[in-house]
Amino acid sequence: MSTPDTPSSKATLTAETDPAGAQAAAAATATKDHGIEFFGDGSHKTRGIEVGGGFSCSDISMRRLLLMAAVSPAGSTDPVDVALKDSLRYRFKHGAPNADIPAENFDPAKERRYSLARINDMKRTKMGESKNTLIARGDLESVMNVAKPERALRTLLRKNAQMAGSRGYRCLGVATATVDENGKVSPFQMEGFVNVRPVGTGLQGDDLTPTTEDWVRLSVWSGSLRFLHWLNVLLIVTLSVTGYYIMDPFFGDTFFRGIDIGYLMGIMRFIHFTAGFTWIAIGAVRVVIAFVSKDRYLRWETFWPFKKKEDWTYLKETLGFYLFLRKESPLYVAHNPLQQLTYTSVYVMGAFQMGIGMALYALPHKNSSLFWAIMAAPNDWFGIPFMRLVHAMIMFLFWGFVIAHIYLAFRADSLERHGGISAMISGGVWMRRTSKPIDAPEL
Question: Which of 54, 71, 53 minimizes the C-alpha distance to 13?
């Protein structure tokens, strides 16, 4: 990370102010030149940009946080810089501190998503010690990645940013680091964020309907994939319930008085076999689709995550996130490496279950044709009791997967807030604008 050179002139964040008359004239000039409009809630508009408060997570006030965010080269015409400095003139009624710095003390956002501003003799409090300070300002997630706040603070920042986002605001994160006399930069400390938005994107009155200004909806799961997903859910539930009953009839006359138990078993077996053959047909269709579909998320490539060297690192980081050893995980639009491996294992396990089911079904038919004789052969190799045991154990493994799948889906949605749970109904997920997924272009 490059930092601006040592300043040749000083710009301070102290309580120094302009004379009241000069300040009023400056405000009037700004209003005339930039078309500022002020509102009762403290927000204002400048050149199409509104500044509307923010959130301080340190010991500084919102006005001082705004001052840090406003630090930029003197004479900058960037609409955000102009809006922030005009907001200072509005909030500091008795004269705003100087937020101008030399151009050589400012490193704008280019490859990264935040700028760096070098300030001399910054005072955090009125009686505090003056220090040379480096201010990072920009995309909230990017600034948090630089400052590395604790998990609780990161969550708090995101929740407050989400509330601001519901009114169309984008959050400019602010973090600071001190620079010693030798030029060594200390670790960054998160200070908070300031809200800005283009004029006209805000919501009126008490309307709290979320805006898509900071989010992008991506259509990920096609209708055919969602149909297969829910059909698989229905078939697995049906096969599990009827299969368990065939293994251990847990109700009968107690629930259905007057119905012969043997006939009830026949009904259960019929349902089980019908669902089983339907499941096999769906499996065959899925295999064909994996090779002929134009949908990238239905293709066979989605079953194997290791396409390049970095994928092993992404798998390790994802596993650490699931084990609560990491605060962040690599961002994926579709399935991350761990999910891909899990779902591939489920498909393999399902294929074994279908094969064992066919072998058990073939028992009374093995003398009728060569096909059924071949299908029933594993019973002779391993024994019927063993085949039934494995068939039952795979059923329990499926239910273990279902429980873990539901838990992890809710966990991921609560942490990443991308609508993954509803995605299997609507087909779309929500991603933060400017995010960089591993498996998709930058948003």
Answer: 71
